[in-house]
Structure formats: structure tokens, C-alpha cells
Design goal:
406 residues; seven-stranded mixed beta sheet; six-stranded mixed beta sheet; 9 helices; disordered N terminus; disordered C terminus
Length: 406
């Protein structure tokens, strides 16, 4: 009897240990930082890790390898491309799988036929391109608003930069200044994710949309309700997403295969990005690379088409640090042929002063390096200056705690 009781005790103890909630990493160098809430939010859900157990290095410049790891974690990417042609990516490097996943997803390419430049730094326009590709955001042909340095945006990045700014996801480093060639740091990347992604849905269930922004769906079976305007991005293969009861103004981008959207209201435009397969909207198959607008019942079934859970909610009353205005930097994978990134914007790699801690799985800890002779990164500013407004302006003051959804 004693043995049975003891065995039961051990079983209950083990079960309880599995239910312990993992809290955000306690980084000594983020306390009081303008991006502290954003860093806590995304480290808590496993999208980003520190460079060591107690250090995040928020002001360190992002490297291509770190950016690849962030996108792989964010979208839970599993498919991998063959990187054997790239001589600077060792098969056992901590970033090898992440870079292979981003190449397979079309987020990142090489900077040359045989170079990925994993330790190269990332400019704002480069990161904007990668971010837009990751979320299936389409390029736009014109820029709304007056920016004194708009002419400095590289031609390969313009469409995506325009789209992010026009949709309010990105602001400048100061009023009327985009700073496209300025290298982005780790804190600014977290701020961009925080201000753009209103709901990060990783568990099945019903999510009521009350805040405007991107709804990133990575769960298998989700129902969206509410009336907030939203850009819904479905990134889970085989996901079933119902919009029964949703009354807001939405657009939907599908970046994964075999996604079934049901009860989608009339007027909602759905884009199946290039490379996807098996996407259906209210039972109708949508071909990859086309937009499908759900028709009203009175339209006789016609539609317009053209080529082309745990929920994280932005915390209320975001940061007040003017530096937070700086949106995350972009990456320019577009400038090169389909298989490679624009070698011009990737600076030469440098030694990585930071050594990834063995106990962490975030290869992002490698310190950013710069070596882009062509990008000629603009004079670096103090973190406070270059990030000005990242959380304040870009965040729109919306940073909310993580809200579990059942």
C-alpha cells in the first residue's frame, strides 16, 4: 500500500511539474529599457532568446543568422532548403537549419551564389523586406506621407517598405525620416513584432478580435469573431479557420498549404501567396498567387480575382520612450535573383564576439556584424536616437500582456 501511495505521489509531482508556466526571461540588461515589454512578450513565447541566460543585448545589431532564427521560431517553420552550395554555412552551425527554413519559405536568399553571409548585419530596408515576405504582405507602388529620405530606399525594397509604412506597421526613426540603410538592432526588431502582431494564435479555440493589427494564426482549428479591422495571416499547414461571427473589415493572407477558410464574410479579400497549394475559401479553391474576394449573395456567386490558443495582444499604454519610434530594420533578400539576396546590402561578416550559450536554443545570440561596402550604413546613432519612437511611435502605445485563449 505504501508503495502504491508513493508511486501516486511521484506521478502527481511529475504531472504538476509539466504544468509550470514558463515566465519571460529575466534579462539583466533589459530592465528599464524602452523595448522591455516587447522583449518580454516575444521571449516568453519562445520567438527570441538572449545571448546568454541573463543577457539579451538589446542594442546589439541584428545579424542575418539571428533574423533567420527569429522568423523560423515565429512561424514554426520546418521545411528546409538545401544549402550545400553555400560555402559559409556549415552543416552543424547553430543557424544552419533556420537559414535553410527561411530560404525554403522565400523569406531569405543568399547574398551571392555561394554565400549566405550569416554574420552580416541587417539594414532597416532589408528587414522590412523579410518581414513583409514572412507575413505575405504584398508590395505597393506608392508611398503615403512625406519622407525626406524616401529616395534612399533601394529599388528592390521599395514595394515592401511602402506597404509596411502605408499600413501603419512601420514609422520612421524621426518625423519624416525612414533611415532605410541604418542597421537594425535586436530591440527594434522586437518592437516591430510587438506593434504589428496584435494576436499570436498558437492554440485552437475562439479568438475575439478587439484590437486592430495582424492576426498570425499558427494553430490548427481557430474561429475568429469580433469587429476589429485585421490582417489575418494563416501560417499553419492544414489549418481550419472559421470567421463565423466576425463583422470587421479584414484581409487574409495564406502562407501555408491545405488551409481551409470557412464562413468568410462577403467583401473579404483572400490572397494565397506564391508557392501555396490546397487553399480554399468557403469551399472555393484559390490558386497560388491570386487574390479572391468573397462575393455577396446578390452577386450571383461572381468574385474578383487577380494575379498577384495563446494569443499575444499588444499591451495597453506601450512605452513612452521616444526611441521606440524606430521600427525594425529590413532585410533585402529581394535584390538578388530568386536564389540569392542582394550582395550589395549585406556587409562583410565579422567575428562574432558573442558566444552562444550552450543552454540556449536561440542562435540569435551571435552579435551582429557589418560589412556591407555597398549599403554604406548611415552614421550610427546612439540606441536612443536610432530607435527613437520604435515603441512610442511605431507601437502606437499598444503593448498588452499575453492572453491565453481557450
Amino acid at each position: 500500500m505504501v508503495k502504491k501511495v508513493f508511486a501516486l505521489f511521484l506521478a502527481l509531482t511529475f504531472a504538476a511539474s509539466l504544468c509550470v508556466t514558463v515566465s519571460a526571461a529575466d534579462f539583466a540588461d533589459t530592465t528599464g529599457h524602452w523595448a522591455e515589454e516587447a522583449i518580454d512578450r516575444w521571449s516568453e513565447v519562445g520567438v527570441v532568446n538572449g545571448v546568454s541566460e541573463d543577457s539579451f543585448n538589446p542594442n546589439g545589431q541584428l545579424t542575418r543568422a539571428e533574423g533567420a532564427q527569429i522568423f523560423t521560431n515565429l512561424l514554426k517553420l520546418t521545411a528546409k532548403a538545401d544549402l550545400s552550395a553555400y560555402t559559409d554555412v556549415a552543416a552543424d552551425a547553430w543557424y544552419a537549419d533556420a537559414m535553410a527554413a527561411c530560404v525554403a519559405q522565400g523569406i531569405m536568399n543568399g547574398v551571392a551564389a555561394d554565400q549566405m553571409n550569416p554574420n552580416g548585419t541587417v539594414t532597416r530596408e532589408m528587414f522590412f523586406v523579410m518581414f513583409a515576405r514572412a507575413l505575405g504582405i504584398q508590395e505597393e507602388s506608392s508611398l503615403k506621407g512625406d519622407f525626406t529620405d524616401a529616395s534612399e530606399i533601394s529599388s528592390w525594397a521599395k514595394g515592401y517598405v511602402y506597404a509596411l509604412i502605408n499600413n501603419g506597421y512601420v514609422n520612421g526613426t524621426a518625423e519624416g525620416v525612414i533611415s532605410p540603410e541604418l542597421n537594425i538592432n535586436r530591440a527594434s526588431v522586437m518592437a516591430l513584432l510587438d506593434q504589428t502582431i496584435a494576436y499570436y494564435v498558437v492554440e485552437d479555440g475562439t479568438v475575439e478580435l478587439k484590437e486592430e493589427g495582424v492576426v498570425l494564426v499558427l494553430a490548427d482549428n481557430v474561429t475568429l469573431t469580433g469587429d476589429a479591422d485585421a490582417t489575418v495571416v494563416v501560417a499553419a499547414e492544414g489549418a481550419k479557420v472559421s470567421m463565423k461571427g466576425y463583422t470587421g473589415d479584414a484581409t487574409v493572407s495564406v502562407v501555408a498549404d491545405d488551409v481551409a477558410l470557412t464562413n468568410v464574410p462577403a467583401g473579404v479579400a483572400v490572397l494565397a501567396v506564391e508557392g501555396t497549394d490546397g487553399v480554399t475559401v468557403n469551399g472555393k479553391t484559390v490558386t497560388a498567387g491570386t487574390d479572391y474576394t468573397v462575393p455577396s449573395q446578390s452577386s450571383g456567386g461572381s468574385s474578383s480575382s487577380s494575379g498577384g490558443g495563446t494569443v499575444v495582444v499588444p499591451p495597453e499604454g506601450g512605452g513612452d520612450d521616444p526611441e521606440e519610434q524606430d521600427p525594425p530594420e529590413q532585410d533585402n533578400p529581394e535584390q538578388d535573383p530568386p536564389e540569392q539576396d542582394n550582395p550589395e546590402q549585406d556587409p562583410p561578416e565579422q567575428d562574432n564576439p558573442e558566444q552562444d550559450p550552450p543552454e540556449q536554443d536561440n542562435p540569435e545570440q551571435d552579435p551582429p556584424e557589418q560589412d556591407d561596402p555597398e549599403e554604406q550604413d548611415p552614421p550610427e546613432f546612439d540606441d536612443d536616437e536610432e530607435e527613437a519612437g520604435a515603441a512610442g511611435s511605431d507601437n502606437g502605445g499598444t503593448n498588452e500582456p499575453i492572453t491565453p485563449v481557450v
